[in-house]
Amino acid sequence: MDELITQLYPLPSSERQLKGLYLSHNLRQYSHVSKKPFVYANFIVSLDGRIAVPHEDGNGQAVPTSIANERDWRLFQELATQSDLLISSGRYLRDWAAGRAQEILRVDDPRFSDLKGWRLDHNLPPQPDIAIISSSLEFPIPEVLTKSRRKVIVFTTNNPDLERVKEIEATAGKVFVAGDSSVSGEKMVQQMHELGYHTIYSAAGPKILHLLLKGGVLDRLYLTQTNRLLGGQPFSSIVEGDLFDAPIGVNLHTLYFDSHGLDGLGQLFMSYNLANQPIPKSEMNPQ
What we know:
Layout: E1 5-9, E2 14-16, H1 30-34, E3 38-45, E4 53-54, E5 61-62, H2 70-81, E6 85-89, H3 90-97, H4 113-121, E7 129-133, H5 143-146, E8 152-156, H6 162-171, E9 174-177, H7 185-194, E10 199-202, H8 206-214, E11 220-226, E12 250-258, E13 267-274
Parallel strand pairs: 3-10, 3-11, 6-7, 6-10, 7-8, 8-9
Antiparallel strand pairs: 1-2, 1-12, 4-5, 11-13, 12-13
GO biological process, one term: riboflavin biosynthetic process
Pfam families: RibD_C
Protein name: Pyrimidine reductase
């Protein structure tokens, strides 16, 4: 992790430490400036745009092991560390129950002991709360999620199974209706705001990114592009859903080249601000 990366944008170009790179973006300040939650998402993609390939056991899809790497994982953890609330899905909990998923923020991993300290220094609990988006409400809630008074908040659609709602609320937290046939990103984030969450990180998949974009509530997209081509079917990209009514514009915020990633093949670490979301001028050139 000691090898330097190159900042390509904003100019002037400079060499930067990987460790602490995304912590330096200081995401927690944004909601205090804008008086609304700051919502951000993150993906790692192959050069041909793939974020997932089928599991070896044929059940669902997962991040390709050929592009997953420790240097990107470090930055993923730095993004999760800064959040009050993590957005995930019922699929994530089902995968966890099946042994195909893990805790999103790994503060108990010795490699990330500094991130645990970072949260303590900022008067944050060891783990952020977790928000689950699910229309069916068909998912287990692992006990590990609810220990230490951690909250699980569920967002679903109209006319949910009331018995299932009672079961979830007796076990974990609160269920909120935030849409008719699908969850509305706008209604969901407004409810998160009313619950007191300021910094919200989507660690979920392309369908949830779609609803955040459609609702106009995503503020920043982080993207790692790896220098490997995968091919194959099915094709899964960062956004999946209906065609947007109008293309969604983004502005490049930061661009870094990691020449040491993927055994020297390299990768780009990029971040984009949504064009309709103002960012304080003081943060346009993170150091």
